[in-house]
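Field: COMPLEX_INPUT
Field: COMPONENT_COUNT = two
Field: RESIDUE_TOTAL = 813
Field: MODE = joint
Values follow.
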Amino acid sequence: MEKSLLPDLKENIETIRRISGGSSDILINEFTAGSIPCALICCEGMISSQTLAEMVLYPITDIERKSSPSELFRHINSYLLLSTDRPEARDYDTLFRLVYSGFAVLIAEGSETALGFGIQGYPSRGIQEPSGESNIMGSHEGFTETVRVNMSMLRRRMKSPELVMELITKGSKSSTDICLCYMKDRVPPQLMRDIRRSLDELDTEAVLTTGYIRPFLQRDRGELFSSTGTTERPDVLCSRLIEGRAGLLVDGVPYAITVPRLFCESFQTVDDYAYKPYYAVFIRWLKYASFLTAALLPAVYLAIIMYHPELLNSTLLTLLADAEKEAPLSVVTEAFFVLIMYEMIREAGIRMPKPAGGAVGIISGLIIGDAAVKSGLVSTPLLTVAALSVLSGLVVPDLSPQITVLRLAFLVSGAFLGLFGISLAACAVLANICATETYGFPFTAPLSPFSSSGMEDTAFRAGIRRMQSRGFTVEDYHE
Amino acid sequence: MNRLSRGQFLSLLLINDAFSLICIRGSISLKTAAAFLLGTLIQLVFALPLVRLCGRGIGADSFGAPVKSVLLIYIIVRGGLLFGTLWETSSAVYIPYESRGITGKLLIAALIAAVCIYIAFLGYKALARSALITAAAGAVCIAVMLIIALLGHPLSSITLSHSNGTFLSETARGLALSGETGCFTLMISCVRGRPLRNTVAYFTGKLVLSLAVITASLLAAGGIMEISDFPVLTAARLIQPFSSQRTDALFLIVFSCFAVFALSLHTVLGGELLYSILPVFKKYRHLTISVLMTAAAVTVYRIPVMFTAAASLLILLVIPTAHIFRKSSCRTQR
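Field: COMPLEX_OUTPUT
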């Protein structure tokens, strides 16, 4: 479509109508400015009508007679401050991109150039509390779907010229704005080169979620864990940028992508830095324990009661044996039944309309849970183990998809081969996690490869003064 | 081959040594510990020429197919011996289905081989990183085992010498057990830092590990050493931190993880050697090595200890010898 604009206004308008296919949301207002026939093209719903009338139409139509369209455009640019953002378009491709991005574009008789005015005014969701990364002591602002609002949230927190935000457009059909942000004094130059190269390779028709971009930023060799992170919190993104990571904001998505991602990030929250270090360390270890409990508890339970009962003391062994004796199904079937039921209920809770969500909770908790135990279909200890495992998984929501799959995989290995099977599966999973990396940054750093300074914010949480003085950037982990 | 950190290098090799120690058969005593000490020192002396060459940038990669073939054969045989040891020892630890005859044993072997091939497929870096974490967890387990043995068992259990073994035969046993000198030969040139420092760190670590495991075993199982087939496994059964429940099944986790990583290292190193000698095997190199190691486990498992001990020393001299030959042939050509 790269055709250049024509000097003939009528022909230009006809071409615009033809290219847009007579789309109803394209508005073309013809008028005279400075005695030169002009047209203002904009997209309904993408601009602020009030700003258009007060800041563009009224001043333009009031311009005195001009001899040529170039003089008219020079006058507008030099004497009228219609908007701060005034890009020029010389072809239809750029013109349509501007129009669909909320610009009002002025074309004039005899001019092969169009002038755009940034008067975006589309309705968007306001800034709200993040739904998945709640905290107590930190900010309660989360990203929205509008990339420029998200950029402003970053800039408000980082008033430094070192923070660079580059806007690029991706998606041959969607022309989605993507903002690449980084601290130019912190980010490793090689990382930026690698990210730019990956983005150049991004050749999709549309970018509708972060999932359209992330595969291009990470190698895919069957890794369980993603080597790029996401966050819906501007403060978290800022902290990652300060550590030398790069961020990507995508228009229409209230999440930012961060590159590279480390495994330990999933266990860190903003609150860790608001509390005293001793409490933050306790909470952090609680999360590590929760992750292991969530993935392994049902499998270890099955392995112990089926193959290694000597690990239990006599009281516990008798208790479990009595409970399982009453159940009509085998303990393996019971475990699968309970865990699959939970996954179904969870999925229903997410997809159901919100008013029905409460009902799902009541049905699952009271009717299915209580009735299953009372009817003897499921033993109480197994249900307790499953509930504990599920609850532990909720402590680390960032790893929820992986925990779900690992829990079932370990359950199979534990059910068939006991602790030996769990060990084999654990070795394979550990190697898989250790194989994950992005652009030479290992996912398992600073644990392996080991970095003693990195452990200050992984195994422990050193004081802020100490952490600020060490001048850490993610480049320290590059292998 | 990728560069390794010293921690990763030590972890990979010490996991192998720890697995060999866990599977040790026959009585052990203080004499065994002294013989292991001597054996380690002999290995260190034999390793010095290789270390010197590494300092000058000469490693296994600097030589052609004949040298690599010798190393490959050693890695396959050593991997086969480890596989055989695992097969034999698995009867002493409780693994479900293992007791169901040959099919059970084959199932266990196939599962371990599958995990090893998968880890090898993920690459040398993944293996090295995961070995570091496993070694750290294993070190904690061995430390706990030693502490409980020291606190809960009398020092009188330690026997100075058992009846069936001379000092020479014990030294040979120590040398035969720690046959990771092949892996050491291949990896030492790929480790960051000074080769001599890395070598001393490895042999010191090996010594500390051997002494810790032997001491814990002597304390816990010293009294019944004559009748215990696998002294370290017996010690693990006797070391119980709690009064009302047994924890020896947890030792199975350490055993399995060490077995997997020990065999994976041999699969990865063997695969790299095979690929550099015969590039046609690129796609199936790990599978081929696994098959060859299994075949070696069946055919050469009953190798005499003296032969294995000598091979573990001689393999350290392969590269220095090849270097001397190359230099002398260059002089002759001139």
